[in-house]
Each structure stands twice: as structure tokens, then as C-alpha cells.
Amino acid sequence: MEVLRAPGVLAQLPCFAECDDDLMQQILGEAGKFVAAEIAPLNRVGDEEGCVFQAGEVRTPAGFKSAYQSFWQAGWASLSCAPEDGGQGQPEVLNQVLYEMLSAANHGWTMAPGLLHGAYECLKHHGSEALKLRYLEKIASGEWLATMCLTEAHAGSDLGQVRTRGIAQPDGSYGISGTKIFISGGEHDLTANIIHLVLGRLPDAPAGPKGLSLFLVPKVLPDGGRNAVYCDRIEEKMGLHGSPTCVMRFESATGWLVGEAGRGLNAMFVMMNAARLHVGLQGVGLLDAAWQKADAYSKERRQMRAPGPRASTEPADLIAIHPAMRRILDTQRAWIDGGRVLAYRTALELDIARHHANAERRAQAERWCSLVTPVLKASLTQQAFYGGSECLQVFGGHGYVREWGVEQIVRDARVAMIYEGTNEIQAIDLLMRKVLVDNGAALYAFLSELCGALDRNCEADAKVMQFVDGLSEITASLVLAASHSVELPYWVADDYLRLVALLLQAWAWAKIDTVLRSGSAGGNIARWSTPSQALQHWVLPEFGMRLGIIKSRLAASAEPVGIYP
After folding, report:
1. Percentage of residues in the chain with pLDDT exceeding 70?
2. pTM across the whole model
3. What is the Cα–Cα distance from 24 to 214, expressed in whole angstroms?
4. Hey, is 342 helix, strand or coil?
5. Of 420, 449, 473, 542, which is the active-site residue?
6. Is the pLDDT of residue 438 over 60?
7. How far does CA 447 lie from the centroid of its chain?
8. CA dist 265 to 210, 224, 270, 294, 362, Å?
9. Which runs of consecutive H residues, i.e. helices, occur in 35-168?
10. Domain ranges in the chain?
11. Contact (CB, 8 A) for 232 and 249
């Protein structure tokens, strides 16, 4: 609240005029109580028991169904949906905070409602009036869950190869045939109906992604009959055992077109973009869960005496005071706190983009979301896995043992780097489609806005501006080099995304430091100063390394690179 001043930002939007600090705190307080009481206790049960597949049906772990019924009936699923659709009408930023809590408490369970809001936005903006009348309120409330059916075994991320077909029927519906893989929650016992949003191709559609259409295919038809939608199996996975990942088969299943024929990706990406910020916050939640376990353990575990002089009254052999452990814990805390500021700011920008009266301000918000969302999805999920592994290291051998719970977080976190567009695709999307597409114009405008309230006389702000200068310079070089080297941007896209991620972390912590210097934060200053120092020592120096990598690749851009000559 202090860093982003969310109540003041939301007060500029008439639909949220009554959403003041007290209301926000009350909603989040109740959310925390619900998650702690109903969802967190099922985390280990979901991992150990897993989902059971039998004769085409899926049974979720004990307690999952009743917890989900409590969740949607209490109104949590509809928190940010419009009141006219049966929702609570609260800001998206509150919804994102709720889902961060859920992911930290029980990632497997949270996969079930995780796509609801993307499906809601997709149907609300692209569905026909008939489809919205029949399905929108059920999805908004969470009474019916939804899936996103993109991937096929032969296609993977290359959606242009999708073979699923939609054949027009005399009654205006379509017969959908094809097989989709990796479908989270494709079949389960949590809700009476499941609404599948299926990417497919009409018979006369051109090849490639521009020929794809989107279809709504329910598990249960409006007349109560079962649709020709079948779950062939669920995958045996490294983690997320509480979430069924399904192979789904459609055999002339009845579906309806969502949006225009041949423009399915336009409709689908409304769903995907909403999901990508959610996945970034999964990273924050999972890393925070791992950190909390490691931090608590470090304050109990006693080993050899820590080196150096000590002013602390804590025992000298407590591992919490060993530099090696402090470095791990403070570094992960820096990523958590900075990532949280960035993700919440992005959620606020989503609210502004949807509801602000000023078109220029809406465009500015859309630019923020477009550039920052792929960066958060990639960098925060990567940190969840690698940082979670570092937190496991704090436990030593005990971390590798199931009873402590941290190994589950590492396993569960790994998939977030893959789904909703792999992190490599996020990097390519950022550099190729968001930066180079207009020769860096949108990025430069974004960086100018980022620097608007910064002061070069402030050390933290000066660091941000130094990074802005470095990013601007390397962007200009890439724009020039990409005009004669098609491969070059693809070689350095991951490094470029890391540059932007580190710049954003520096900016987030500059905002935090401003609040600390003002004295308005109160509380324990050491709580914030130690991760702030860790950011300077162990995180931000990577910026120079990534710049060096890109410059090295630029210098060699005229030379062939690869395994084969």
C-alpha cells in the first residue's frame, strides 16, 4: 500500500471509488484466513495422494472438491468479475494478490480455478450474446470451471500446426474433432460442467496460425446430455500431482464459435495474457513459500560457529547468522519483495487500462502491461525454481527429504517456466514483437515514463537511470544489427529479457527505498535493509554481465554460429 499507493490510484477509476484502504485490507485479511484454513492444509495431501484416473473419469485428492465448492460459493472466484455478470466488481490487483496466496499455499489445487478469469475475459469480449447468456455467469462465479485447449502432440508451441477441426452444422454449431494434450483440469470432479475453449481450424482455413478459430465446447450440453469430449489419460508428472493434466479427445463434439472465424488467436490471447501475469505471481508465491520454510529452519538449526565478530545476541552456531545462509535468504527475499511490487503494479495497470477515463492514460497502461508481463512471467518463474532450490539448500540433506515440504515446492515450481508460453518464447516475444517491431519506440517511451519521478541525486534512483541508459544503448545497437542479421535477436533474447528484469527490480527497490527513507513505513527497518543490500551485492551486478554477453554476440554477429557449419 505504501509503495504503490494503490487506494489513491484506484480512486481515479469511478467503478472502484469505494475501494479504499480499509476495504482492501479487509478483503485481503479474509482471503488470507480462507486460504490458511481451507486450502493450505490440502497441499501435502494433493502431492502424496494425487489424482486418480479410471474409465475416463478423474477423482481429485481428498478434500479438493469440498474446498473448491467453498471457494466459489464464498465469492472468491468472482472477486474481480463485473457485477452485471454476477461478480464482486473488485479491482484486478486484489484478485492477483488472492491468487498469489493460493499458489503459495497449494499450487496444485490453485491450478483448477487458475484459468477462470482468462476464460471469463475471453468470453466477455469475444463471445456471442447467446454464449454469454448461457455460460458467462457460470464461469464468472466459478460454478463451472474452464480449460484452455491449445497444445497438440505434434505441434507444441507451434500453434500453426494445429490439426483440430471444426465442421459447421445446420443448427449453427460446429462439430469439433481432434486431440489436445497437457490440458490442466481437462477432466475432474470439482464442478458439474467444464467449459473447454478449443483452438481449431475450419475446413477452408489457410495454413498457419492465421487460419485458427476458437470454439467453446462444454463437457455437458445445454440439454443436460454428455458431449463427445473424452479424457484418454492423465499425465504422471514431476510435480503438481494435485492437478490433473489431461489428454483430451473431441469426437465431433458440439461447440460454438467464439469471436470471428480465423481470428481464434486474437480471442485466445486475451485469455493467455491474463494467465501470464497470474503465472508470474505463482513464481512470487512459490518462492515466498520456500523462503518462509528456509528462514524458519535457519533460525532453529544449530551447526558450527559462524565466522567473524558478532554483535548479535543469537547463538553463534545458529545457521541463520552464517554469511552463506544469509546470502541465500536475503537474495531470495530481494526477488520476492521486488517481484511483488512489479506484479502488483502491473495488476493496477490492468485496472487502469480497462477503466480509466483518459485514453492516453489507458494507452500508457497497456504499454506497461505489454512490455512487463512477459518479463515477469519469465523472470519470476525462473527465480521460483532456482531460488526455491537455493532455499532447499539451507536445509542441507533435510531439504531433500519429503517431510520438510520444500522439495515439493521445487518440483511444483518447475512447470511454471514451461506453461503459458515457455520462458524462451516470452523472451522472443519481448524482443521481437514488443521492442524491435517498432525500432524500440514503445520501449523508449516506457523507459521515459519509468524515469519520470526519479532523482539522479538519489543513489537508488541513479542506479535505475544508469540501467536505463545501458538498456537504451544496447537496444539501439540491436535495432541496427537486426536489420542485417536475422538470427541475432534470437541468440540474445534471453539475455535481453534478463536486462529488463534487472532494471525493473532496481526500479521496484528504488520505490521501496523511497518509502523507507520517508519514515512512513515504520516497523523493522532491518527487515527491508538486508534484502536491499543483497540486491545491490548479489542481484544487480548481473546486469553488466548480460550487457557483456549481448555486446560479445553483437561483435560476432557477422560470423556463423551453431553446431553445424
Report:
1. 94
2. 0.94
3. 36
4. helix
5. 420
6. yes
7. 23
8. 8, 30, 9, 42, 23
9. 43-49, 64-73, 92-105, 107-110, 116-126, 129-131, 137-141
10. 422-565
11. yes
Which residues lie closer than 8 Å to 189 by C-beta, 6 or more apart?
A: 57, 58, 59, 60, 65
**Residue 179, beta-bridge partner list:** 249
Using H for helix, E for strand and C for coil, what is the string for 419-483? CCCCHHHHHHHHHHHHHHHHCCHHHHHHHHHHCCCCCCCCHHHHHHHHHHHHHHHHHHHHHHHHC
The 8 Å CB, 24+ separation contacts for 102-105 are 102/35, 102/39, 102/285, 103/281, 103/282, 103/285, 103/286, 104/285, 104/286, 104/288, 104/289, 105/35, 105/36, 105/39, 105/40, 105/43, 105/285, 105/289
For residue 185, the one-letter residue type is: G
Mean pLDDT of the chain: 92
| DSSP structural state of residue 305 | P
Residue tagged 508481463 (cell numbers): 373
Listed range (241-250, 261-270, 524-533) with the worst mean pLDDT: 261-270
Q: Which three cell numbers, joined as nine digits, stand for 60?
A: 481429485
What pLDDT is recorded for position 460? 86
R_g (Cα) of the chain, nearest Å: 24
Does the active-site annotation cover 420? yes
